[in-house]
Give the backbone structure.
Amino acid sequence: MSLFVRKPMAALMNEAGETGSHTLKRTLGAGGLVALGIGAIIGAGLFSITGMAAANHAGPAITISFVVAALGCLFAGLCYAEFASMIPVAGSAYTYSYATMGEFIAWIIGWDLVLEYAVGAATVGISWSRYLVKFLEGFDIHLPHSLTVGPWDGGIINLPAVFIIVLMSLLLIKGTKESATVNAIIVALKITVVLVFIILGWKYINNANYTPYIPDNSGTFGEFGFSGIIRAAAIVFFAYIGFDAVSTAAQEAKNPKRDMPIGILGSLAICTILYILFAHVMTGVTSYTTFAGKDGIAPVAIAIDHMGSNTDAAGVIKPDYPWLNRAIVVAILAGYASVILVMLMGQTRVFFSMSKDGLIPKIFSSVNPKTQTPAKSNLLFMGFVSLFAAFVPARVVGEMTSIGTLFAFILVCIGVWVMRKKMPELPRAFKTPMVPLVPILGIGVCLFMMVFLPMDTWIRLLVWMLIGMDIYLVYGAKHSHLGNGTDNRKGMRIARYTSLVLCLLLIIAGVLHQYTVGFDTDRTLFYISLIFAAIHLVVFGRKLGRVEPES
């Protein structure tokens, strides 16, 4: 059996129709799915990334950057909506790829999604810890530094990050309905705070702050001008990540064929409108230059400080709403909690599908008969993500979430195009308009934004994908239910050649990164790239001559 064997649609439909205590419980309606999407999308990224992207890259044109990022998400979202209504199975892009492009591609995308969900949840957990410390300091409560950051940041262990990940994991184990209820409450809080900021800030907008709307390029690629808008779009794209997680809940939706497109596209539309209005107000109440060098909630804090009608003796504006900063911190804490909740949910559902296909151990598809949730998988990821958040610095995986997600979007867009060609007769509750134009545009926009991400992000992506190739060739290919229990399948040579190409790309990325930062700077990432690539070149190269079966 070939590595590119496609999972039959009949098998997927049977899987979607499964009922009983050992299957996922259908409790989510259209409203719950929209709330799930908003819960995953709106995080602290909106409050912090917006100011940084405006100050360093786009200026007031950050609103255009949000539109560009939203377009990439829209094209991908339309493709996700068609797949989710047609194949209502947990697993999201992994499942869609298995049905359209075969097992090998499905594994690649399934492994890639770990970057978005599990690693992303750990990163968000670390940031949640930082905001909790900041919030408590406002009440003169000071947590020990050694217990709030990992060893790379001068501490011992990040206990607040572990706490929020454990709390959200236990909520998921309790049940999907309970998780959705808590998420809906958090979403209501987040939207309220964002709307309050927009409404209160609108009357303080000074049109002079929008001039020039698109600042001239500084002479450096990505610093203002057109290239700055696109670079900012690639950065703020992080603030949109999450709407695709709705598709992982397909087997927990009451009417997935009708409600999944509503959940995916509805949450994306609501968040896009809020983002554009938020950015417009933020850059209107003060000049984008005032956000330079700020981090955390500082950009929003600066904007709030300029929301005032009176000045003191020194001519400094007296803010009319000083309490709003504290409300923003509360919204950030709540926002991060819901993002972690949905990310952990998405990861366990992707691995649920991969496990049912035999590509990873059975424990990941074990369902608790009482709660009808993958409790064992939740516990395993609770441990893994908690350890990661406790000891690893957030900066290591910061932009990997974006590149992993963009890669997933590209494959979903390709999948819809392939599906229309190979299986046009299949019933579709929702159809992506203007195929192949929309998928092509989705591929183009997402690839465009990937190119604008820093080279060290590409290095980490390539290393991660090579680790995934190791696991697939050692375990997944042999234990696949469609692979007939053999590790010598047709297409193995292609898989090994793919691994060799990844090795060469890793070497090139390592050299380009070091060239960009200068060969006199730290070379750790450069040496890791070369050593990792060299080892895999030897391992995969030795097995190229192995004889493959005919079919």
